[in-house]
Amino acid sequence: MIYNNNESPPGTNQCCMKKCVNILEDKNNCGVCGHKCKYSETCCQGRCVNPSYNPRHCGSCNNRCTIGASCSFGLCNYS
After folding, report:
1. Could you tell me which residues are beta bridge partners of residue 71?
2. What is the per-residue pLDDT across 10-36, written as a single tens digit (0 to 9) for each?
3. Which UniProt keywords apply (predicted)?
């Protein structure tokens, strides 16, 4: 369905280019309409992150490593 920029159906966050998207998860509209994440990044909570090395989003969104642990290749404490 096509919507005006001002309207969006229930359960979505924003209409971007007449397409309803979740700006907290959409890699092509991360945080705001039109903000694209890099190839190696994904959109987690409206921010572009690299899940291969981000200790707060290690391997996937919201997969937090324990305090002091590092994230390598999407795994906490990989060595």
Report:
1. 76
2. 545 788 888 889 999 999 999 999 999
3. Signal
